[in-house]
Amino acid sequence: MSAVTSTRVVLASRPHGEPTQDNFRTETIELPDLADGQVLLRTVYLSLDPYMRGRMNDAKSYAPPVEVGDVMVGGTVSQVVESRSLRIEPGAYVLGYTGWQSHAVADVNSLRAVDPNRAPLSTALGVLGMPGFTAYAGLLKIGRPKPGETVVVAAAAGPVGSAVGQIAKIHGARAVGIAGGAEKCAYLRDELGFDAAIDHRAEDFADQLKAAVPDGIDVYFENVGGPVTAAVLPLLNFFARIPVCGLVSQYNLVSAPEGPDRLPAFMGLVLTKSLTVRGFIQSEFIQELSGDFERDASKWLAEGRLKHREDVVDGLEKAPDAFIGMLHGKNFGKLVVQVGPEQD
Ligand SMILES: NC(=O)c1ccc[n+]([C@@H]2O[C@H](COP(=O)([O-])OP(=O)(O)OC[C@H]3O[C@@H](n4cnc5c(N)ncnc54)[C@H](OP(=O)(O)O)[C@@H]3O)[C@@H](O)[C@H]2O)c1
């Protein structure tokens, strides 16, 4: 039998600032034969997420960088083509971390079964997967919204932000979303039921935000940093909580922003307003909360209380462009690449 090949996107060079097509290279490799306990996978969906920008840098972080020449990392939903494990049969669907490639050999222990009858396969990468869990854990463990409080979240039309706002509403809070452009803001208000949605690109963004939170802000779910955070800070209430989830406006920066050092004023605010500012990586809560999340999110999804939107890009070759665009808001909903058909 001829060897199985995989088409894959590797990191060709490290970006300086915004990534470009030149930082990626597509190549085809032969996959090794399966060892006991391994499976051959055919990728169906690849998740594109902002954290991947950090992995392209040669910098110390909570996870090691992708080495130049290595396949880009990423969550995937795949179908098992061949199995050398009694635990999993050909035809089954699995959630894995096999990256930007058409096929992969993986240890069965690194995979989780995905039931295609429970929900559409791609939701395992979005509303029922890592981004949904991030919203759930960060909001409920750190944000702790109470009924009647005001929760503000940016990147609100994305998978994390849209779940944050809706879960805040489920818990009786007011949800105010910040997003780029009128279409995303209308979606937040009209389809997801946010109480208000503000376009961060509007010239009077700070004034509009102030008007949208007449009782101040009790929870600011931090996804973006930069000018959005600067507009939020003066509106925080005493004892406000800030789950620091992401800082996507800063991922492509190559130097510190100009202007006076803002740290002393920020620390003064933390002190005088008794703020709780707590960063987190979703994986720290998996053991404690993944069961609760699976129960609640599936129920809310089935009841129509947790809605979601996907932005599906067709073909692995489009992954670099789609990823670059996501870092400045071209995606509308959870960005996934359809690498292969659901049914072979
Ligand atoms: N801590 C964790 O464990 C964890 C896990 C998952 C995700 N995250 C973080 O959560 C955040 C959201 O992730 P996601 O997967 O839901 O991404 P996403 O919302 O699908 O994509 C990122 C969005 O950020 C917005 N954005 C980009 N530049 C911006 C800027 N300068 N100012 C304001 N908004 C900007 C864009 O939306 P607009 O068009 O609305 O501007 C863009 O669509 C990211 O910061 C990510 O790194 C953290």
TrEMBL record:
Residue span(s) of domain Enoyl reductase (ER): 20-337
Output the superkingdom of the source species.
Bacteria
One GO MF annotation is:
oxidoreductase activity, acting on the CH-CH group of donors, NAD or NADP as acceptor
Organism equals Rhodococcus xishaensis
InterPro entries, sorted: ADH-like_C (IPR013149), ADH_N_2 (IPR041694), ER (IPR020843), GroES-like_sf (IPR011032), MDR_fam (IPR045010), NAD(P)-bd_dom_sf (IPR036291)
Q: Which SUPFAM superfamilies match?
A: GroES-like, NAD(P)-binding Rossmann-fold domains
- Alphabetic keyword roster: Oxidoreductase
Q: What ranges does the record give for the region Disordered, renumbered to this chain? A: 1-23
Q: What protein is this chain from? A: NADP-dependent oxidoreductase
